[in-house]
Amino acid sequence: MSDKLNITINGFQVSVKKNTTILEAADEQGIRIPTLCYHKDLCIAGNCRVCVVEVVGQKRLSAACATPCEEGMEILTNSLKVRNSRKHIIELLLSEHNADCTKCYRNGNCELQELASEYKIMTQDFIELVPLKNYTIDAFSPSIIKDDSKCIRCQRCVRTCAELQGVNALTVSHKGDKMKITTFFEKNMNQVVCTNCGQCVNHCPTGALVEKNYIEEVWEAIADPTKHVVVQTAPAVRVGLGEELGLPSGSRVTGKMVSALKRLGFDSVLDTDFTADLTIMEEGTELLTRLKKALVDKDENVALPMATSCSPGWIKYIEHMYPEFLNNLSTCKSPQQMFGALVKTYYAKARNLDPENIVSVSIMPCTAKKFEAYRPEMHDSGYRDVDYVLTTRELAILIKQAGLDFNKLDEVKYDRLMGESSGAAVIFGATGGVMEAALRTAYEIVTGREVPFENLNINPVRGMEGVREASIKIEKPAKEWAFLDGVELKCAVAHGLVNAKAVMDAVKSGKADYHFIEIMACPGGCLGGGGQPIPTNPEIRQKRAEAIYAEDSDMPIRKSHLNPEVAKLYKDFLKEPLGEVSHHLLHTKYTKRERY
Amino acid sequence: MANSYLLKRADFIFRNENDWEKILSNSIKKKPADLINELISSELKGRGGAGFPTGLKWKLTSEAKSDVKYVICNADEGEPGTFKDREILSKVPYKVLTAMAVCGYITGAKQGFIYLRGEYKFLEEELYKAIDEFEYYCKEIKLEFKINIFMGSGAYICGEETALMESMEGRRGEPRNKPPFPSIEGYKEKPTVINNVETLAHAYTIFKEGAKKFYDLGVQYSRGTKLFSVSGDTPKPGIYELELGMSLQDFVYEFGDGDTKAVQVGGASGFLVPRKKFKDAAIGFQGKLTGISLPTGGSMMLFNSSRSMFNVLDNYLEFFREESCGQCTPCRVGCQQLLLGIKAVKRGDKPASYLDKLMRLTETMQLTAKCGLGQSVANSFSSIVENFREEMIY
Asked: How many CA atoms lie within 13 A of A405 on its CB side?
């Protein structure tokens, strides 16, 4: 039997693969069928009904996203019947939606607004439903604002929270006119299992879920002459920002971004990549210390596998879901928080600044970082270590507000002292990157040789597979690491919390005997973070990942332990990895949280 | 009454000769294909309202390849104005259980479920007693078939077959996308036959009396008998087994109070027929005999001239606004707009012409809603607004 089907779309005969939906078939022909509840990351819901098309001979219209093509099908995507129905549905959605677009954070990047514009919905004949309902805005979370008056009930957030993240903080309750997206017992977003990952924000077609923005606070700090405003930029921001400013996905804009930040008025533009390298030094040492305790001292209390702790969404997830494994987390703070602690101590001292007058801003691909900066334990410098966290999207807003023509900006390098980094640091932005960076350094420390992979590219830990496993056999180690001779270091990498769950369940049941696991809360790692440009989908994540690895390849230094500024930091300030100062500034503890 | 009346009473469903053991043991001696052919030739159609040919449904599941299959009896009787399934389950439960087991034998399903409406909790205990006795007999004749009751929680939408399955699987009762259809991918993604209580009771009759006896009743396209739940302005409310195909005129002669203004056929999701159309309307599935044909799950509500049709529609729309599952736009928002819309017209906040916009909206709902609920709101809305427009406005 042939695996092809012959169908006609709008009168043109085409041949498509079996199991192709009408939506996909039309897309292949360059015909865009509008959608709202559809997202390439998610299962098919078929509930918004905007994608309805006419299948000739059928009484009712069919949802293109949910209907598979059948042999001989005659499909009309733009018949009068379809247009009228579609227009009706858009009008219905608008009647239920707080359509005060000029006051909306998503004004200009809203899928419903686009459709309303495309179909030229110029009047509102239906009765407006929003004033009839008692909507309140939930702004209790430090990361996410939920405004039900803008919700179109497409359930993309619910599916995201369940399918990508396995968290289920958001769910549907009630039915009929009272049906809504809510949380367990309708608690506020800061009181539920929400990890603040922001994937719901990234997948929301409208302004119902947005990040809590700190744009005005940052402008105020910049305008205050008594403040020294330092900004750090996360690895993944440089491969995402361009999309918000009109460039194709996967554009590498590091130099232009630094230039823009300087023009915005930041006093010092520094790189989170610097503390990513530092994380490798601390975390790599921590791993080797744990392995030594386990293998040489036969200490049964050593928690293995050790898990990375860079992703604050993952941290909150494990605190809720697997609190019995908190000792398995590396005690290292995330690069953002290491950076924050150092800015108000090491950097302040070196630049002869009063930390009181330093405002520390970070640009992150992440909404959970907003929560992380707000955690009570993140004040080790004596001040709040990171004052404001902006997402990639918020940075783009700053740049637009300042009237900068981003494309015309020249390429500028980061400022020095905490601006130097290696290729190992930039790959923190992709799933598997922390693992790869750690292996590049740890293997070399132990054996004195480079990792046995061509061009240092540890391909087994790269890619978009949800869970990836790798192992490296340690042979002929240096004398002090002799106990590792012949040991096969087993690693696992997971991204997206639903995959984290799979790994943790394997660890919990004893099926997995990993030594080291890297977990990133978001699909694709930070490059697919909740604070990255909207839309984000599998193809876009792939392009951003390619850009990240290209950045790595182009770096003169590819290994964290060769970062000269990190070496200087240890020499002048920290003395040694896991030393006393490190312990105080760069490491943290975790809190068991309830699920309900 | 004159002989010209097409209305004919029948007595199959509630006639209890307590012969289910014989019917069951005889049926499972026959070849599954023969039993299916018997059902197909009887032209029995689903009695829940949608009217899908029962024999074909069983055939599809019997041909589906799977080690695990299910039979579900849909006893979520939620359509306003129907109360026949309750009677069947309390008076002749063995007929339903037997038909389920025969269906299991034909399709290869070894597990059956009765999805019992939340409000019918009081039936559960007696029903389990019947199931215990039934399963004991199945064991005796070496027929592997178990039946469990799944209690619904009172949501109208869970009568929709795929929402019902979602609910059984522990999720929100929201209809699924179709295809796949339950016959191929139903409960727990396994091939599933799902039938209304009454359909199963008729299947029992067919296995007992033979297809011909059933086929000879009723009219073309609408064979056999059907239970009708008669309510409203009638001197004799109750449940009646009647042959399909009668004209509404005859029905009203029999059950009306002499002042019948309109009859709602098929519950809130059905059609309202005004007096002037009684003689053109026939009760049965597709195929126009005398004019309008009205498929129905059996709910017949009679209204006399004391009733305001605005209030009737208002009541239906209140019901749909609340009972829509809320997932798809046309149904969730459409029902709210229809309800608020007719109120606004009545108040004078919207012009009478707004009713035409609402009529077009119901067309869109019919074309685009995800399931039968949203699609069928148009039935009562348009039939009431078309026929009683003045009552909507003044």
From this structure: 2
